[in-house]
Write a structure and sequence with these properties.
The structure holds 2 protein chains of 2 kinds.
Chain A (H helix, E strand, L loop, with lengths): L4 H17 L8 H11 L5 H13 L6 H40 L4 H29 L3 H16 L4 H15 L2
Chain B lengths: L2 H5 L21 H14 L5 H11 L5 H13 L4 H44 L5 H30 L2 H16 L4 H19 L2
Helix pairs in contact in B: 2-5, 4-5, 7-8
Classes of the chains: A mainly alpha, B mainly alpha.
Chain lengths: ~180, ~200
C-alpha cells in the first residue's frame, strides 16, 4: 500500500491529533492507534500490529517508534518520517512554549490536582494497551503461554526483560508459532 | 528577536539553571547532538534511564533535581515524553535551533532503523521461522507490557482508593473492552478525574 498525498495527509492528521491525546506518554494512545490502523483503515492485521509494536519495543530508541513503523508500513520511508514529525512536532512545540510556565506552577494546587487526576487515567489506558496487545499477539495457546511466562518472569523476578524477549522469540522460532 | 529567545533562559555559563555551581561547560551543539545520538542507540528498553545516566551522571549537564523537574513537566504535557524533554533541553541551550537539533539527533537513527526493519518485515515477515520468532517476540512483549501495567497499578491498588480504581477501571473498560474512540472518553474522564482530585485534595 504505497499511497500518494492522500494517505500521507491521513497519517499527518491522525498522528498529530493522537499526540495531543497522549497523556502520560505514547502508550496511552496505543489502543486508539490499533483501533484506527487495524479496525478503521484496515492498514494491517491484528497480528501485524502486535509484531510491529514488538519490533519497535525490542529495538533501541524512544517508545514512539511504533509510529515510524506504522508510517513505513503504510506509505514507505516518507510515510515513516511524515508520521514521526506529525507525532512529535505539535507536542514538542507545546512543551517548548509552556515548559517554563508549568515548571513555575509545580507547587500550585491546580497543577497537583491535574497531575493526581491524570494518574488513574494513565494507568487505565496503559492497562488497555496491554490488553489490546495481548489479544492481538496471543493467537494460539503457545503464544498465550509465552505471554504468561514473560509476565511472570518480568513481574516476579529480576531477569532482564531483554533476555525474556529474546527467549520468547526463540520459543516462537523453535516452536513454529 | 523571536519569541523563543524570550523563552530561553538568559545565556550564561555554566549551563543555564545549573544550580550546584559545578563548573560544567555548556556543551557545543555537535557535542549535544552526538550525545543524544549515543543515548538513542543504547536505549534498549526505554530511553529515560539512559538519558538520566548520560545527562546527569556522565556529562553532568543537569542536576538530578533539574532532570526530575523537566521530566515532571514533560510527563504532565501530552505526547512522547522523552522526545519532548530533549526538545525543551535543546531549547534551553541553543534556542529553536537547539530544540530542532535535539529532536533530530534523538530520533534520526531509531527512525532509520525502523525504516530498514519495517522494509525487512514487509518482505520477509511472513517467511517461516522469522514469522515464528516475531510471533514469539510479540507474545513476550505483551507479557512485558502487562507486567509494566501491573507495576503502574500497584500504588493505587495499595492505596485502595476507590475513586482512582474506579476511574482507571472505567477507562480500561471503555477503551479495551468497548473499543470506544479515545477522544470522547478523555473529554469526559479528564475533567471528571481532575475535579475529583481537586475535591479530595488535603
Amino acid at each position: 500500500m504505497k499511497g500518494g498525498g492522500d494517505i500521507l495527509l491521513t497519517l499527518v492528521v491522525q498522528f498529530a491529533l493522537l499526540s495531543l491525546l497522549a497523556i502520560g506518554g505514547v502508550n496511552a494512545v496505543v489502543p486508539e492507534m490499533h483501533r484506527q490502523v487495524v479496525d478503521l483503515h484496515h492498514w494491517m492485521s491484528n497480528e501485524q500490529f502486535s509484531e510491529l509494536y514488538a519490533i519497535s519495543q525490542a529495538a533501541p530508541g524512544p517508545n514512539v517508534m511504533i509510529v515510524a513503523l506504522i508510517g513505513q508500513h503504510v506509505a514507505g520511508p516518507l510515510g515513516a518520517v511524515v508520521a514521526m514529525v506529525a507525532m512529535c512536532a505539535p507536542t514538542a512545540v507545546l512543551a517548548c512554549t509552556v515548559a517554563r510556565v508549568f515548571d513555575r506552577y509545580r507547587e500550585a494546587p491546580w497543577r497537583r490536582a491535574v497531575e493526581v487526576g491524570l494518574v488513574p487515567l494513565t494507568i487505565g489506558l496503559f492497562a488497555a494497551a496491554a490488553w489490546v496487545l495481548a489479544r492481538a499477539a496471543d493467537q494460539s495457546w503457545v503464544a498465550t503461554a509465552v505471554t504468561g511466562l514473560a509476565f511472570a518472569l518480568i513481574y516476579w523476578t529480576r531477569v532482564s526483560p531483554l533476555l525474556v524477549l529474546a527467549g520468547a522469540a526463540l520459543v516462537g522460532f523453535l516452536g513454529g508459532l | 528577536m523571536s519569541d523563543s529567545d524570550q523563552l530561553r533562559e538568559p545565556a550564561h555559563d555554566p549551563i543555564p539553571g545549573a544550580d550546584d555551581g559545578a563548573a560544567v561547560p555548556r556543551p557545543s551543539l555537535p557535542e549535544l547532538m552526538l550525545t543524544l545520538v549515543r543515548i538513542s542507540v543504547s536505549s534498549f528498553g526505554g530511553v529515560l534511564p539512559w538519558a538520566r545516566r548520560v545527562l546527569v551522571e556522565d556529562k553532568r549537564w543537569m542536576t538530578a533535581e533539574e532532570f526530575n523537574r523537566l521530566f515532571a513537566v514533560c510527563h504532565f504535557l501530552p505526547g512522547p515524553n522523552v522526545v519532548n524533554m530533549s526538545a525543551v533541553f535543546g531549547l534551553r541551550l541553543y534556542g529553536v535551533v537547539g530544540a530542532i537539533a535535539s529532536l533530530v539527533a534523538l530520533c534520526a537513527v531509531p527512525v532509520a532503523l525502523m525504516i530498514v526493519l519495517g522494509m525487512l518485515y514487509d518482505r520477509y515477515g511472513a517467511a517461516s521461522g522469522i514469522s515464528g520468532a516475531l510471533s514469539g517476540l510479540a507474545a513476550g512483549v505483551a507479557g512485558f507490557i502487562v507486567a509494566t501495567a501491573m507495576n503502574m497499578a500497584t500504588p493505587i491498588l495499595r492505596r485502595r482508593s476507590g475513586v482512582e480504581l474506579g476511574i482507571a477501571a472505567v477507562a480500561f473498560v471503555a477503551i479495551a473492552l468497548l473499543r470506544l474512540p479515545l477522544f470522547p472518553v478523555l473529554a469526559l474522564l479528564v475533567p471528571l478525574s481532575v475535579a475529583l482530585a481537586w475535591w479530595r485534595r488535603a
